[in-house]
Structure formats: C-alpha cells, structure tokens
User: Fold these one by one.
Assistant:
Number 1:
Amino acid sequence: MAAVVSEKRILVVGGGITGVSAASQLASAGLQVHLIERGDHLGGQALEFGCKATDTCQQCNVCLALDRFRTISQISNVYTHLSSRLISVSPGPNGSRYQATVFTQPLLIDPAKCIACGLCASICPAKCISPATPALGSSYYAVDRSRCLALNGQDCSKCSEVCPTGAIDFSAGPHSRDLDVDAILLAIGYEPYDALGQGTYGYGSIPNVITGLDAERQLQDSTTLLRPSDSRPPTSVAFIQCVGSRTQETEPSAFSGQYCSAVCCAYAMRISRLLAQKTPGAKVTIFYMDLQNFGKDYQSLYNDCHDRLCLIRSRPSRLSPADNDSVLVTYEDPQQSRVSRRAFDLVVLSIGIRPPADVRRFADMLNIDVDEHGFFDSSACYRPGIFVAGTCTGPTDIAGSIDRATAASARIIADANAPGLRAGGLICRGSQ
Amino acid sequence: MTIQKQSKFDIKKPRRNPRVAVLLCDCGQTLSDALDFPAITAAVRKLPGVAQVLCLSDLCQPTGIAQCVSALSDAKITHVLVAACAPVYYQAVLAQALDQFGFFISRTNIREHCAWVHSDPDAASEKALRLIKLATQRQRLANHVVDRTVRLNQRVLVIGAGLAGMQTSLCLAHAGHKVALITRSDSLGGRAVRQTILPDAAARATDLASKVQANRKITVLTNTELRSLTGQFGHFQAHLSPTDVALSCGLVVVATGQAQLSDPPGPGLLSFEDLSLLLRKNRLSSLTRIGLILDLRDQQDCAATRACLKLARRARELWLCETYVFCQHLRVAGSDQEQDYQDARQAGVLVVKTASAPQIIEQVGSVCVTGTDEQTRRPFALTLDLLAAADIPKGDNGQASLNSLLRTGKTVAGLAQRDNVFLLPVDSGRKGILFAGSCRVSMEWPQTLADGLAAAEQAHLLLTPSSIRIAAQRAQVDPSKCAFCLTCYRTCPHGAIDIDQDGRAAVISPVMCQACGVCASECPAKAIDLVDYSDDQLCTTTGFAGGTVIFACENSALLAADRAGLGRMAYSANTTITPVCCVGRVDPVHVLRALQAGARKVLVLGCHEQACKYMHGINRAKARIERLRDQFTQLGLEPDRVQIGTLMAADAGRFVEFVNGPNAPGPRVGGL
C-alpha cells in the first residue's frame, strides 16, 4: 500500500496468527519482512481450530485467522521461509542492526511447484503425504518426515516419479543463511498443555476422553462432535476446565503452572452451546473453578450457558472407564457436600496454554526476561530492535493475539522510522 | 465540500464484439481421466464470442505461461477466461505475464469444483462445460472501469482524550500528522486521571496529557462535541459544537472510552472509587469489618476483579480490619492477576464465592450481606461497617448517538464497534473511521495504550499513500431511475451512500464503497447495479436442467467448495456454482431467473452473521430469501426450492451437507 518501500528489514519469528498479522502490517508499511516458520506451513495453532457457529456465529474468530493466512501470500514484501529456525543472532556487519542465522531444512515438496494434484498422496505406500493446510481450501502437499520410507533408510521414490511438475526432491540438503535485519519480532506462540501428563484423567487410555484441541480438530471436518469410540453423537458430555492451568504442578522446565490460560472457558462454553444445539436432548456439564470473562458478549453467553448447561463448581478427582465406553467422573458435589460419580458419553479436557518449548533458548539468545510461568516479559526486551508479541508473552485468544501483533508492529514501524527514539514499553516513542 | 459526482466516463461500455480466449488446463494431465477435454474443447469453441481455446497441461508453470503469452499475443483477444484449478495456484504468475495485454481476465474452477468431486466423467465434463458457458456469458457483459486517484487530507480528528485518545494523538503527531483532539470534558485525561484505584494509570495519563499539550501538531479542543460528519475518507468535514467550528480531516479515530459508570452502584453501597478515596485519606481507621462485592448485577470483568483485589489488600493492610470479597467467579485471566489474588490472600483478605448474588440488607450505620458460601455450603450473614461494589455501566453513554452520527452501525451494550470478526482490531466498517481503546471492548489500561498505538498505526497506514487509487469494481446509480427512497442510504453497510438533494438521487462515494452490492439488491427501482456482478451477469439463461444453482459467496462458500475438492468429498454433479461477491448481492430476480432457466433448486450460501465481510450482507440476503420463500408458499410452490445457508470458508462438510441434504455424507472420490 505504501508508495515508498523502505530498505529496513524485519525478521518475524513464528508463522502463527500473531506473526502473520504482524508481517502483513509491517509489509503494508513498506518494510521488508522475512517470516520464518519452523513447520511446513503457516498458520500455527489457529489452523487447528474449527468453526463453532451454531445457527449463528459465536465469534470465535477462527475465520478471521484463516482469512489472514489466506491473504498473506498475496502481500508483496513478505518473504516466507518455511521449515526454518532461528539459530543465532549477532551484530549486523553491513549497517543493519543484526545478522540472523536461519537454518532451513528444505521441504521435500516444493510449495511453489506443487499443484495439489494428489498423485503422490495416492501412491505413497506409507500414506505420509497430505495437504499441508486443508483448512485454507487450497494447499500444497507436505511429507511427514518421520513416516517417509525414503527418509528412513528404505528405497522408495514413488512420489517423485509420479509428480507431474517435478516438485518432489529428496536430494536437497539443509542449509543456513544469514539475514541482515533491523528488528526481530518473536511470535513463537505456545504449546498446548500435554494432557498425557495428567495421569488421573486417563487421556490416551480411556477411549472417550478427548482434549479441547481434539474437539477443535473434529469441528474442522464436521459440524458437531462425535464420540471417538463409535462415531455417534454423544448425549451427555462433560467439560473439565483448568486442565493444566491454575495448577500447583510444575513442568519439567520448572515453570509454575499457577496461572489462568484465559481461553479455555471461552472455547468450552462455545463448543458446549454448539453441542446443545446440534444434538437435541444432549446434556452438557461444565466442571469449573471460576468461569473467566472474555469478549464483549460475555454476559449474554454466560446467561445462556447458565440456563442451558449444567455448571458445577468442582475439580473432578479422577476419570475411569465405565459400561458402553462411557466415562465415569468422580467429583465432589458442591450441592450435597459429598463425593459423587456420574457417567458421561464423552469427556472433554479443556487443556490450557503452556509456554513455548524453546522459550529459554530465545530468551538467552536475545536477552529477554522470562516470567515465572515461562512467558516472555514484553516490557523487558533489553536490546534495541527486539520485540515480542502474541501468546509467547502470555495466554490470549485470536483477537488478543491480533491486538498484540498490531501494537507490536506499530512499535516496530516507529522504531524503524527513527531508531534513535525507540518506543519504550507500551508508550510511543520520544517526548517533546 | 460537494460530494464527488459519478461521471459517465467511469464506465467504458462493453466492447461490441468481445473476443474471448478460453484457457483450459488439465493439471499435468491428472484431470484427463475425470474430464473429457477433447469434448469440452470442441463444445467451448462453439460458444458465442469464443475466439480461441487453448488446452494446456501446466498453466501455473513457466512453460505453460510462455505458451499462453505466445498464443494470445497476436489473436486480437479482448477477454481471457481461465478454466483450471483454484486461482491461488496460478493467479499471481498469470496476471503478471498477461498484464502487458490489458485483457479482462476471469476464472472458473473445473478442478476442485468438477473433476475432483464427481466420479462420473460425463457428468463432471457436462458440469465443467456449464461453468465455462456461464463464465463466458458473464464475462461478455463485463465492463472495464477506469481507476481514479483521490488525494487524502492528512489531518486526523481524535474524539476522546482518555488514555487511548491521547496515545493515538501523540503517535500520529510523531508520524507527522496534524491532529485535532476533542473531548467533551474540560480537561485531558479521561477516566484514568479521575480515578485513584490504579495510581500507575493516573500517572501515565497525567504524563501523556502534558506531552499532548506541549505538542505543536496537536490542537486540543475541550468542552467540544462532534455535531455532524460529512464527506468521505480522505475528505471528511466535521462540525463541532458548541463553537460551531468546521474542521476538515482525512480520518477520524473514536476513543470515547467505556460507558460512564453509575454512581453510587446501589443504596447503602460505596463505589470502588469511593473506597479508594477513603483509603487515600486514611480516615475511618475504626472499621472492624468491611466487604467488597463483585458480580452484583452483571458478571464483572478482569479489570473490576483487579481493582477489587488491590483495594481489599490495601484496606486490610491499612485498617487491619476483617476484609471480605464476595464474588461468583474470580476472574484472573488478566496478566499477573493470579499474583494479585495470592497477595490479597496472603495479606489476610477472605474470598467468599457464592452461586448467585448475595442479599444485601441495609441497616443503620452498617450493612448486612447474606448468602450461601459455595465452598463450605454454609449460609452466612455478615454485618459489615462498609460495603463497596464494582461500578455498573450506565445505560446510555452517548455512544449510540455518536455512532448514528458517524454511521458506523448500531451499538451493542454501549460499545462502539459492531459485532463483526472482520472489524478486529480497530476498524469500524466505514472507511476512514477507526475505534481505539475501551469504547470498542472493555479492556485494562495497559491494553488501552496498546490499542491507541494500534489505531494510530492503522490510521497512519491508511493515510500514508497521500493519494489512493479507487478499486475498479463498484456500484453505480442510474439517476434517471432513482426514486429517492433512501433504501440504499439506510442499507449500505459502509455508510458509502449520500443523497444529492439537488439532483434528487442517491450518490455512491467510490472511496467508501466496498462493492458488496447490498444496495443494488435492495433498490426497489433497480436503479443501482454493480460492476462485475451486474443483474445481467447474474441473471443467466444457461439451461440448468433440473439441477441446483448455488450462489456462493466468494469469501466463504466458494472457498468451502475448493476445500471439498481438496478432500475429494463427492456431491451431486448436477450443480452449478455461481460466485457472488457477497450473498447480499443476490436478488430474488436472480433466483427466479435461475429457476426459470430450468433449475430445480437454488441455494444461496454465504458467511455467518457477524463474520460477513460486508457487515450485514448476509442478514439482508436472509430477509430477502425468507420473503421469497413466503411468496412461494402463497403461490403454492415448494418454498424449499430456494434455500439460504451460512458456513465458513473451511466448512467443506457443511457445504456438502447443504448440497446433498442433511445426513447424507457423500463418499470420497478416488483413492484419497
């Protein structure tokens, strides 16, 4: 949009909703953006989520995120590096502030050449090729490296033989390149809480215990939730809140889990309403500690959930398998002051947001403070031109991520236009 | 300023004899089994206006592009129709290569919408041919529109001088814009300086106020309100009261803050602010037991919880009294709020959670709170020396009248921004008007500052090009047909239509128009038409032979159909997809014409409400289609011959469900 293209280059680390939003903002301000993503596609966690509309939109903002992922490829000045990691950052030699070393493991299928014909996927003996971003409607294909026969020592080149455009190349090795940049924005996102660690809730061993993320993934392909064991719509569903949030247990990384993940109440209540509407007669129960506020329509959503759903203030102690593949929930009933047991067709664990796995590595590399929970402290970036945004600075939803991305890119633009007057904290740069 | 009138020269009439080149691509011959390309090519050649048919295998690759360029360069072609895969795979390279010729390019998708979803090659080929026929018909009626350049006034009007407004003004001033900052109060600072609960916020507001006052680029007008706003993005004309100043500006940022709070929140209760002032003065040290209450009438947000916990802790530490916090839910989702809670608990604050709001009984010199503690299941009745409750927003804060003045839609719960996901973060839906801070959604003060920054950035980006080219595709009024009924003025989602009192006709601002076509479909006199989606183009006469015609919104249903193709989800081949910019463009006439042309059923598929890029395009379409269904019933026709549905772009499952009917998940096509 801007007439003048600046010489300034910005490195955005992370191709999730925050990184993509920031990259498009920065590019429209005329800056050159290098966007690096460790995975084989842009989109991050938000690409795993599904639409939660009943008859009406519930404003989960997933469609907004998808729209941004779809349009980023049309923006000039954004150079996307997939399957790439930031290895090191050193002072820039050529007049730029930093030199960032980016390590790239080339994709086996070149996205620029792939025409998504699907021949490789239909011929692959290991069934390890699939569309990288099916949620966006159009996509290139990508190989799951861990299951590919050729990469695991076997002689197989069926896919590259059949590819009509020669997009599949096993010979390209990893390489690293140096990028001269003036600012770095870290938007490395979060890790969903690993529910396999929550032993008492039997995720992974009891068939009809799923996580909120599993539920989201299901909603991508179908318009309602089904029981994994028999693919039938459940008639009684329980959501268990704060799984991995507001907990005393500490991660192996020694970060404290005593914080609210801020998004789980929102998605649990939205999916609950969807279920209640899609499966007439379905009974939805939410086991909660405190229902957290979110969004501007919270009051009406809360009232609606309060009327239509069963809300129980209790933290279940254990889940166990029961007859007909149902799940028995043991909890303390607050109304009767005693331990109760109830069977549900399906139990959804509302897993929370955990700090990104390599937060320490980035913090050390770029000299940023990390708080006790493992998130970046956005007010404590000590080096000039280093910025953080999105869920790696603390849990938030899609709208919050976009807010943070916009604010961060505003600061970067101010910084790039006049590096001497650096934006300090949240306030705009300079004083008169 | 006078409204820019549309000149006749904006539209070039369609060429008399368009010469269309159709580019077919069989996707590296992967589609040659699913579609009968020789037959399609032969049939396409016979279509009126088609001068050339090119059958390629690699349209998206450099070799294919080169082949196109050489074949098209000397054939006097005017229009190009690409019948291939989803445009994302080839659009960029092809547009670049063909740019030199100035062709009118349009697209239809015979891969995702035909070859991949229909297992019968004959039916799929028939459908592909139908889509190509339809596209050429539409294309022959296409108009070239001349782009126009409009200069933008660089001055910004900021309404509201709270944290967000001051932050926005300062940033814009630093970026080189002139700023007029107006506030209806008599000083800068807004709610942040008037409160004492969060000293940091007050200090920051004072600091910002002094910077704003010292900045020469910012003109501060206190005791001033906006009386009217006319004009368009880049050329707004604001009239201010009471001074009756006319101010020209390019852009408006609304930062009017949260709803005003009622005071006091209830009989016998203090507000949090009152309590904070008492704590400051450090009177009343003889208190023995006090309480703070949340969720009294409405569910409170994180900001109220934060204030409550901070005050409770301060009171407990200062007065050494028993301090209770009553709430239904302790909202700790804000940053570091769990720490506030821990600190308060450690200081000795007692938190009582109840399932519903407790009863408050006023007594002489004290107040009694009764309810049932949800954790101990015991009823309690506590006599308190003092009870403070969170503020409750007042009903009217003037936002509704400001919104109607700005034409930015109706407010919900006193908030400025409409409920639409595509407005996030700071857009209003009306070009050139932005929202910042807690007028758009309740937020805590650090976020308010960040929001001010975001709005400033957005404003700066919008104004930076100093002049803009207006998009080539937009609505046009025929003044001779206009009955001056104001329907379009009322229904335009983007406030782009003004009324020319002299000419007695509606005038559409090309700058504000987003080309959704809602006005064109709503106009009772059919005086408005939309370039590229004109009535002639959408009233197609292709024989539909008992099939289904799908009017698919390009923002959702069309992409969902792409995804259905990617997933090889089968649906009936006797379907025809007609892309529309928004289902708000779909007129009952288009539906009836499709039925007249032999369609058995017409499906209108668009975005969900509140996720429509054109605000209420879908709502308008729903109302129209419902009316049409009623008329069908009255005439004894089956109302289900026309249906409307909503879905999102990734909802391939829902798309197939709509086409096949519910509970009939189709089989997958091929080996995938």
Number 2:
Amino acid sequence: MNEASMIGMLSTTVSFGALLYLACIGELISEKAGVLNLGVEGMMALGAVTGFLVALNTENPWLALLVAMIVTAAFALIHGVFSVVLGAEQVVSGLSLTFLGLGLSAFFGKSAVGNPPGAILANVDWGPLSDIPWAGPILFQQSPMVYFALLVGLLTSFLLTRTSIGLALRGAGESASTVDTAGHSVVKIRLAAVATGGALAGAAGSYLTLSLTTSWQDGATAGRGWIAVALVIFGAWKPGRAAIGALLFGGLLALKTRLQTFGVDFSPILLSMIPYLLTIGVLLAISIRARHRPSASPAEIGQVYRREER
Amino acid sequence: MKRLVLVRREQPLRGGQPLSFLIGLLVALLAGILLLVASGHNPIEIYERLFNSSVGSSNAWAKTLNRAVPLGLAGLAVAVAGSMGLWNIGAEGQILAGAMMAAWMAQIFDTLSSPILIPIMLIASILGGALLASGPGIARAQIGVNEIITTLMLNEVALRLLQWLIHGPWKDPESRGFPLAPLLADEARLPKLFGRAHWGVIIAFLVIALFGFVVSRTAWGYELKVAGSSGATARYAGISLNKKIITVMVLSGGIAGLAGGIELSGTSDRIVEGVSGGYGFAGIIVAALALMRPSGVAAVALIFGAVQVGGLSIQTLGVSSSVSTILQALILFGAIGAGVFNRYSLKSVKREKKGGST
C-alpha cells in the first residue's frame, strides 16, 4: 500500500462519509420530531435522478441541487401527510415511499441512463490549503457538498440543543402533548421535520450524481439510504456521534473496493456487512443501558399524535 | 368561518377496508394513466397488455399465481407478527435465508429423489427464516430492542451472506468466472401444477388458510391479539408476553423462509441475489392493505402478483417496468387515504375565535 492509494482511500472515506451524513442528519431530524421515515432510500434515489436531470437540461449544478432538494422535500411530505396527518403506520408509509421513490426515479431516469452529466459540482479549491500534503487532498479538495454536510451537522447540533426551535422539535418526539400544551402545533413541527429530512436526503442523492458517480443508473443509491437509517441509531440520535459513525461507515465503503489493492485477503462482501452488524450491536447496547437510564431513542417515535386521544 | 375536521367514528365502517383497497387500486390506475400520458405512451394499449399478460389467459394466471406465492407468504409473515403489534421488516432477509438453506440442502442431498429432497429443502427453508428472525425476537422480548431496526438490518446482512456464498464457496466452477451458483438439479424443483404454475401455490394457500384459522379461531390467536393491543391486559390474563413475542417472531420468520424455499425450488434455476425479489418489502404493504388479516393477505397478494407480472410484460412496449413498483406504492397510499374515512368522518364545524381550542 503506497501513499497515493492511502490518500485516495481517506479522501473517499470523507466523501462517502459526507454523503451518508447528509441523509443521516435528515433522518435524525425527522426521528427527533417523532417520525420514523424508512423512505430514505427512495428519497435519495429521487434526489439523485432529479439533480442529474436538471443538470442535464440547465447545465447549472447549483440549480440542480436546489430543485432536487425542493422536489424531495415535497416528496417526503407524502409520508408526512399520510403518517402525521392521516395517522397511517409510519413503517408502512415510509417503506411505500421507498418503493415510490425507486419506481419514479427508474421511470424518469430511464432516458438519462448512459448520458454524460450536464454539469457537475466541481471540487472546491482552497488555494494553499489544498496543497498541504495529506490534509490537502483528503480535506481540502472535496466537493462543496462535503463542507455543506459539515455545516448542516453543526447547525443541526446547535439548533437541537441550544434553540427553542430545537426544544419544540425534540418535544414533538419525546412528549407531543407537552409541546401541544405549550402552544405549538405538533403536526406542523413534524411535517417541517419530515420535509427537512427529505430535502437533506435529496441533497445526498444529488451529491451522488453531481459529484461522485456523475452518471445515473437504476439502483445508483445501492442501499446507502438504509445505511443512513442505521447511522442515526449508530450515532444514538446525536449529530456529533453520527459524524464519527459516518466517517467509519464511509471508510468501510471506501475500503471495500480497495481491499485487494491493499493486499488484504478478506472478502469485500463480508466487509460491507459490518455497518449493519455494528448498528445492531449499538442498538443492543443502547437498549441494555436504557434499563437504568433514559433511552437515547425519542420516546414517542412512531406514534400518531391525536389531540382528542390524549 | 367554517373548517373541516376529522371526527372519529364510534365504529369503523363495516366492509370499509375492501372498499378502500378498491379505491386505492383505482387511484393508482388513474395516476398511472397520468404518468404514462405525460411520458408519451398510450395508456389504453399499455393497460390492455398489463391486463392480458397477468389475468388474460391460463398462462398469464400461472405467472400471476406464482408471483402471488412469495407475496402472500411474506404478507402472512408480516401479518402474523403484526397481529401482535410487532413489525417484521425482515421478511426480505428471511426469504433469502430460506432460499440459502434450501439451496444448501439441495447441494448436500444431491442423490435424493424429489419426494424426499423437496420436503427437506422446504423444512430447512422454514428453519433458516425462523433462525434469522429469532434474534430480533429474543432481543425484543428480553431487552426491549426495537425489532423494526434489527430485522431491517438483518436484511442487508442476509443479502451480503448470499452474495458472499455466490462469489465464493458456492461459485460454480463451470460458470467461467461469473459469480453464479450451480444450476439446481431437477430433483430439487417443485413439480408443476398446471402450465408454469407450481405446487407452491397449493402450499402457500394451505399455510395462509392454516394461520387464518389459528389467528382468528383459536385461543392462542386470541391471546395474540390481546397481547398486541395491551401488554398490561395480557399480563393480568396470565399470558407470557416474552414467550409470545419470541414464538411469533420465529413463526413469522419461518413463513417468510418458506417463501424463499418455494421461490428457489419453484421458479429459480439456481440461487441468485434476486431470489427475494423485493417480496419481503412488498409483503409489508400487502399485510398493511389486508389489515394484518390472513384472508385479506391472500386476496391482496393475488392482485399485487398480477400488477407485478403485468409490469414486467409492458417492458416490451418500451415502458419501464418501474411502473409496477409505482403502482404498488400508489395502491397503498390511495387505500390509506380512503381508509381514513373508515375510522373518521368529515365534519364541517364553525371555526372558533382566537384562543379557543378545537
């Protein structure tokens, strides 16, 4: 293993990590407000194809990103309306959203398969910083989405813990009736959280097609939406811990294609099992600890809030 | 000013769910027309093909029935867990586990003849699915671990395990480097019922009927529902909740595993990644539409089977087969939307002045 391949691997770790992190923070916000959204994989796919198609037609990557985020936010609201307003089971409605998203992205993306990108989100040049050995290529020659992901994580962490918006959001997931009594609309908070989650999953999807693969094909998201769902739990619903998890899972994705180059005789397929097994392990640990202290998981996740049934 | 509010009905509408389902189906088909027209296709031609290729001939029915088998069993697996308020999101992985076990048996006992080998394969497939679901069941019962996430994660684990087997230990030396498992022997294939329809149709029907009976007509099934609606009541009644949770998850996994065994032995040439075909996830939608009732599962699975078969057939007309995926999701959303009115009625009330609570 030489220096160049090591740098390549670490740089990919950061870019994959950022992709997972964006979608994960979206899901985290939604879950914090009490809405489990298993539609991440579908939202990501829809964001990926929307971003790619808009870029193809307008050659403007930023517009593509923006449109993709708006479209997936609106798309996520399908889940929001069905589960929050109409009281459908979150699991079922979320999974159907994945179905719908994968179906729609394959349907509308059909014409774009094999096309070169209309525009890409080019890597940011940080001037002299980009030339630093190791740190330059790993941290300062990345897609703008990497820095966006970092910003989103910091902002979310701040909003959740330091602001009244964050308090109301967490309240909607921990004790909806309390938030209601305090004069906030639980339904509106939850819908806003779901839409934000959708926008971020869409951002992750367009990051994939506008920066990483720069092409579209069916199944391009390759289960990364599910990893993002796992990551929320792995990070115990905390943006900081989720960031560490994102780098770890991103690293595993980056390592997967490089095991042979590194001369390691281990199946890359078995390696890709690790994130899921780790997540199960963390969930077990959280549950065992929850017997003695408050659980990390939002208390009312998955529950419909209806005032008259309070 | 007036506004509309949803008011809960004292009793859910009778016969409301089949009606909601039909409305959902209608909504999906209408939305499908919009989608097809918007993308420049002729919806009549495409729907005609969809209909003919799924239920228009005995050949078409055979394909639809074959598809309905894994959908119905996966739906039943979800419904059995769901009747106790548990979510088995892992049917997809349990189907794979079942198929892997069945394929393994076919490799080990390659000298046995069909009447002995096939039962062995199917029993092994039940065990495989049950084994995969037992972990989440035990974790839920003993330490309260959310079974939604554990079963979901195990889907991915099972898929990787299968990929690894196909790329490694099970790779056919005659596949010229392709990651393919060897072809199944003829002895390992389920006999045909008529046309392409295989005996899995009968097996699935019997299993669904059996569980329909057990869940709705036996004391055990009644306890299940009590435990699902209120853990406290169940404990007063002396029902062992933990034991029930584990039993139900193991049964649920076993049913999904059987779907994998039948799918492998009935329709596949060899074990491939796609053997689970998304049936596990579709099964969740099937069970939800059937309100977790086995009898409903069979009906919904049949219709979903037809939609899937039809969806594949329209590819030849230049339409993406993803239309069928879209239709399935839309059926569910349409039905949920319509189903709201089974439980609630829409009333128009006067909007109160500021400060009042509705």
